Amino acid sequence: MRIGLFVTCLVDLMRPRIGFATLKLLESAGCEVIVPETQTCCGQPAWNSGDAPGAVALAKKTIAEFEGFDYVVSPSGSCGDQIRTEYPGMFAEEPEWRDRATALASRTYELTDFLVTVLKVDSVPGDYEGTVTYHDSCSGLRSMGIKKQPRALLAKLKGVTLKEMNGCEECCGFGGTFSVKFGEVSAAIAERKCDNILASGAHAVVGGDLGCLLNIEGKLRRMGDETTQVLHVAEVLAGRV
Amino acid sequence: MEIKSMHFKANASAKLADVVLQRNLKSSKGKFVAKRAEAIKDLDDFEGTRDAAAAIRNKVIDNLDLWLERFERKALDTGAKVLWAKDGAEVCRLVVEIARKHGVTKVTKSKSMLSEEAGLNHALEAAGIQPVETDLGEYILQVDNNEPPSHIIAPAVHKSLDDVADLFHKVHGTPRKTDIPALTREAREVLRGHFLSAGMGLSGGNFLVAETGSVALVTNEGNGRMVTTIPKVHVVITGIEKVIPTLEDLSTLMRLLPRSATGQSISNYFSILTGVKKPEEHDGPEHLYFVLVDSGRADVVGGDFHEMLRCIRCGACMNHCPVYQTIGGHAYGWVYPGPMGSVLTPLYAGIENAIDLPHAATLCNQCGVVCPVKIPLPDLLRKLREKQTERGLRPLTERIGLRLWAWVAQQPRLYALGASVGARYLKWLAGDTDRIRLLPTAPEWSLGRDFPAPQGKTFRELYAARQTRTKEST
Ligand code: SF4
């Protein structure tokens, strides 16, 4: 099974170790993973900012780079959702591209969904020990149905105890460009999320989207919390990379 | 109503700094959400009901002219008069004319968002006619210097019990009380006289039923009944999109409306009002007028935002919106707040008058999943952003920045270089700490939070190095 790994621009820039953790998880499950060198961004920032032509150009580029694989896997529900949900609707006037987008969409998965739904893994290599609470990121949760998958995988780790926070499905306030256009509102929403994280008493908050995690970590630290770890689910599941 | 949506950002900051409002928002947050979650459990097929409701609304808005004509014909048969208003100014003119014709000097009102859109109270006062809001929330706002509503279902939700206690003490000149039943009784005593002396009652309409020419009213306080049955004249003001085909359809929509709005399986009062008082009937108005208002709706038909016309004004989208929960409804600057308002305000009050609103959302889609008629609100917000870009309404720096970024992202080598430089720059900003206190490239981010430091090299660099190592070792 040949997998194209869509790293995401944020992981590339900020947290390469999440990319390596993803690689490790897929490879240890027996997949052949290829990382197309020319990949950049799925185009979501352009799409959500109202720059349709820019988004369409990036969608075409991504489709061309990834359509040769059996599956496309990404450590992000948000980018995965862009490819799976948004791409097919972008090409109303270009039926050929629409068909290619639709074909790619049906083979595109968020990491934990892929591990559970397609690979049906029995075990994961991680060795994290501690109490974690899970933040459900919006696109993954509401568009791609990512809810049970990461929890099922975390449950495979003996040392991990999951302690749900209040409002785990509520938005953390990130919202991509929203976080820099309406910084104050965004940070105020993040504060509510962080209050819930802290109240859960968990050692770490875990999630599947780096954007949300950067937002949460930045807010926790500004609130004076120095101890709660903020981890991508791939890092927890993969252990040392 | 005057539109202040251009100042959304400044308004939002002010609302965040308003200690009393923040306390009130915190204490009301989640109440409607929890109640709705509980209430939808009694429907065995909630999703199926949503689909059915969306289909009913689609059927109407896809052929709106036809359904309006059917409604009009039926309504005329029941003895009502049907008037059409192009915009808010025409609403005001028509209502003042009706009042004058019947020699009315006082009008009791039950809740109507269209009256807010039109700024009707102001117009009535200017014509020497006294408008009296009788919905408790609206009454509170009216006596508080005509404050605008902050929510479409619970107009005074931004106020606390203490706020209302102070207000009533001040305007009624009565001893201050904080007991809710006592406060309600006090408002009732004031309103009772108005109910009996008003010459005309004015209401909104939740639905217009084409099959029977009726208006359906969903209320919780009973004031709607007083307003629509005691005075000799009843005027219904509602948007042209509110029509539905049949009573059967009404029952489907009513399974969703109160549950989505307040989490009630049925509202305390639910009236279906048909026609004028017949000779054998004891109460009801002798004159019934429908003022059916366009105010931008007809232009939405058949366009990119057509689906928005399905809206049944339940308010679930705002109750569940993280932005609304954080700043309340006033910051949105016009009649409709929250996600539905961020779509409706640009459509009805001008896209150029509400530049911030379509962007004032995280696109979390919490609104989309709770909307009882399945309006894809995030998609519509995104489409509005596209329209803004197409019309050159976004700031030049933002447009150039986005374009440049999208162009670079299409040049993999250049992009890779940019990312390496960016990662190192951010790492440098963080110094030997794990965070950046002030992001020079995006200062807004830093207003309320730090920015975590990057690892320092990009994934693609590290991956390439790893590939080389693997090759060398084999
Ligand atoms: S958009 Fe949907 S959720 Fe919002 S008020 Fe209208 S019907 Fe209710």
Describe the 3D structure:
The complex is a heterodimer of chains A (241) and B (474). Chain A is α/β, with parallel strands linked by helices and 241 residues long. Chain A has two domains: 2-117, Rossmann fold, CATH 3.40.50; 123-238, 3-Layer(aba) Sandwich (Rossmann fold). Chain A contains 13 helices and eight strands. In chain A, the strands form two sheets. In chain A, strands 2-1-3-4 form a four-stranded parallel beta sheet, sandwiched between helices. A four-stranded parallel beta sheet of chain A has the order 6-5-7-8. The longest helix of chain A is centred in the last third of the chain and has 18 residues, at 183-200. Chain A is globular, with a radius of gyration of 17 Å. Chain A starts with a strand and ends with a helix. The model of chain A has no long low-confidence stretch (mean pLDDT 97). With 474 residues, chain B is α/β, with parallel strands linked by helices. Chain B folds into two domains: 5-299, Rossmann fold; 401-473, no CATH class. Chain B is 50% helix and 11% strand. Chain B has 22 helices and twelve strands. Chain B has helices at residues 8-17, 19-28, 31-39, 46-62, 64-77, 88-101, 113-118, 120-126, 136-143, 161-172, 180-197, 223-229, 247-261, 297-300, 316-319, 322-327, 338-349, 366-370, 377-390, 396-408, 412-430, 459-473, and strands at 81-85, 106-109, 130-133, 200-203, 207-209, 214-219, 233-239, 243-244, 269-273, 287-293, 435-436, 451-452. Chain B has a six-stranded parallel beta sheet, with helices on both faces. In chain B, a hairpin with a 4-residue loop joins strand 5 and strand 6. In chain B, helix 4 crosses helix 13 (247-261), helix 10 crosses helix 11 and helix 17 runs parallel beside helix 19 (377-390). The N and C termini of chain B lie far apart (74 Å). The mean pLDDT of chain B is 96. Chains A and B meet through helix 1, helix 2, helix 3, helix 4 and helix 8 of A and helix 1, helix 16, helix 18, helix 19 and helix 20 of B.
